Amino acid sequence: MSSSSFLHQRQQFQQILSNPFRITPLTSTSTTIKPSLISLLFSRSGFLILLLLIIILGVFFPWINFFGNSSSSSSLSLKNQLKWKEYSLAQAVSFVAKNQTVIVCAVSQPYLPFLNNWLISISRQKHQDQVLVIAEDYATLYTVNQKWPGHAVLVPPAPDAQTAHKFGSEGFFNFTSRRPRHLLHILELGYNVMYNDVDMVWLADPFPYLKGQHDVYFTDDMTAVKPLNHSSELPPPGKKGRTYICSCMIFLRPTNGAKQVMKTWIEELKGQPWTKKKKSNDQPAFNWALNKTVGQAELYLLPQAAFPSGGLYFKNETWVQETKGLHVIIHNNYITGFDKKIKRFRDFGLWLVDDHASESPLGKL
């Protein structure tokens, strides 16, 4: 093909691009495709022109669309943030629940790394879609919902939880004492609810262990080794006249018995407020509630080998080896301090966010 012929065809192609949506008048001459156009389409140069057109449409149109939508994406993000700010607990639970069951945690901004670590372990068990984060400050609410829309809710009023509260502090008490109210509300909506502290890691799926139709399922907080076939009944009281059950991992069915336990827990917290002299936390009140509702609720102690306390799992290497393969949820308790907990998780290969952040619905924070 001569250069003048190719230039002529290029001019024809440019004319087509200049007005690709031009409507040709419906005349007898316009309905017949000219032979020169047919020869152009089936020639080598026509093929090159067609290929060039595909490249232009494939590359430039999405690029233009990206810039065209940048402002609308920003406004949409702001709109979503405002939407989730007004999100009620009932709306949130309805959004995330699967099989009438929701998994909840309560988190303030300093604990977002622990939340992410916990979520990675839950994602590996394919239960992340059921998770609802009860945000205890607006920073957490916005962070989670921006990255994972609809999976965080704030139940007002938000406590002053901008710092990592130490166990036994007034801030820690104020933070944790809201828990039974959240759980009771979810039960009253008709849902099963599992509560976890976020300093936990799932090694297996816990739901097969929730056997029967009991009202409340919980774990022992003691370090003394129990036999593998130990009783599922509430253990006897200890030296302080109450049991030592952990309030960190609880599963509740929406029954009258479970609701009564939550109501009693709330009353116990009211009767045992935090003072400088008596630095209360939510766990003794939970134990008193369990002790006082025996006979009113069906209680179930989960197996120690599957749900060990941190004081057992991280400090009894012999027991860990003897029960290897039986562990389901590990709780990083029996240690205080943000950095100490992270170090312990790292030492035991349970701090997952360093290398596996992509497995979390939140990604890398």
From TrEMBL:
Subcellular locations according to the entry: Golgi apparatus membrane
Transferase as UniProt keyword: yes
Transmembrane segments: 47-68
Membrane topology: Single-pass type II membrane protein
UniProt keyword terms in alphabetical order: Cell wall biogenesis/degradation, Glycosyltransferase, Golgi apparatus, Membrane, Signal-anchor, Transferase, Transmembrane, Transmembrane helix
Broad class of enzyme this protein falls into: transferase
One GO CC term, this protein: Golgi membrane
Superkingdom to which the source organism belongs: Eukaryota
GO biological process, one term: rhamnogalacturonan II biosynthetic process
MF terms (GO), sorted A to Z: UDP-xylosyltransferase activity
Pfam family, one: Nucleotid_trans
Domain Nucleotide-diphospho-sugar transferase: 127-345
Enzyme Commission no: 2.4.2.-
InterPro entries, per the entry: Nucl-diP-sugar_transferase, Nucleotide-diphossugar_trans, UDP-D-xylose:L-fucose_XylT
Family: Belongs to the glycosyltransferase 77 family.
Protein name: Glycosyltransferase
Source taxonomy: Eukaryota, Viridiplantae, Streptophyta, Embryophyta, Tracheophyta
